[in-house]
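User: Second chain of the day. Same drill as before.
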Amino acid sequence: MKTRIAVLFGGMSTEHEISVISAIQAIGSMDTEKYDIIPVYMTKKNEMYVGEDVGKIESYKDIPGLLKRSERVTFINEDDKIMLIGLTKKAFGKRTEIEIDLAFPIVHGTNVEDGTLAGYLKTLRIPFVGPDVTASALGMDKFSSKAVLKECGIPVLDGFTYTKSDYKELDDMLDRIEKTVGYPVIVKPYNLGSSVGISVAKDRSELKDSVDNAFQYTNKIITEHAILKLREINCSVLGDEDDAEASEIEEPMHSKDILSYEDKYMSNAKGGKSKGMASVSRKIPAEVSPEMRDKIRDIAVKSFKILGCSGCARIDFMIDEENGNLYFNEINTIPGSLAFYLWEPVGVPYKKLLDRMIEIALKQERERKALTFSFDTNILSMDSLKGLKGAKK
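Assistant: Same format as last time:
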């Protein structure tokens, strides 16, 4: 019997479109002899839809038209039977009912990748592929993840956070950034991916513009000293807290001081057709010494485990060419294109990568079922609770 998998994508995120690309790439590579695949599109209001055209990339040129041809659904769990249920009745009062075994979120950004969707699935006791709530939230919070990793001995650049209340006193905020960080300074939202809202400032005028831009997307930003002679190196990790392995490493090419959204998704998209992170110009393997390659891969696995990740993540590093120092930059707990292009060079084709991710999720579900989450107690029948009946609200 095939495993029935609901692939969730889209959602209320600035990376909504990238999620659509990543998910449909994955759906096209899944082993249909092993899995029945149900594409589930989440709108920018986080409403879920299924339908014949939901898994077709060309349908997303006209999303309103796609939704009219599709059906809105929701998840229910009834006696550990996971169902996608239609929200409108069809002929003879029947509703669509699709039983599934596993959810596979392929989502990017806030309101989905940050633990929100994982928490929803976990509340309904729906087994799912990828990171749990805590790992998702930590991974999305660039400041908190670095604080945890720094405590565990992982090399990171010191960062300083500022909130909307700081932003109200802009001149004072800019003074503090100049004093604590100095130029050049990199400014970024604390909880976004795909390089959204990130820029480098070399003077006060550029700093003001960078801060203004970042606060369009978030209520808290991070500032760090920007490395002048920067090399960015990425490595993917596959596994869970118990067992994980590293992929090949890459050096993405970019046109500006940092890898931009345009570099990631637009630069090689001929005819307006993006292949997500697979479109990026890159060197695989990155041209570093064998010792540096081993160091990057080792720190990647350690960071993945420290943050409690599961599935397939991508960890981005920085090398300061002036002194050779290596720094953890950030983790993408559900990376664009699921970083499949980093696994193929080490003998793991995309179909096998997806199999491994699904196997990890099913193993974790078996382990979860062996745990105890409740125990019998008579506390609600105690005499001491009788006085609550007449308590004033």
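The chain has a mean pLDDT of 91.

User: Great, on to the next one.
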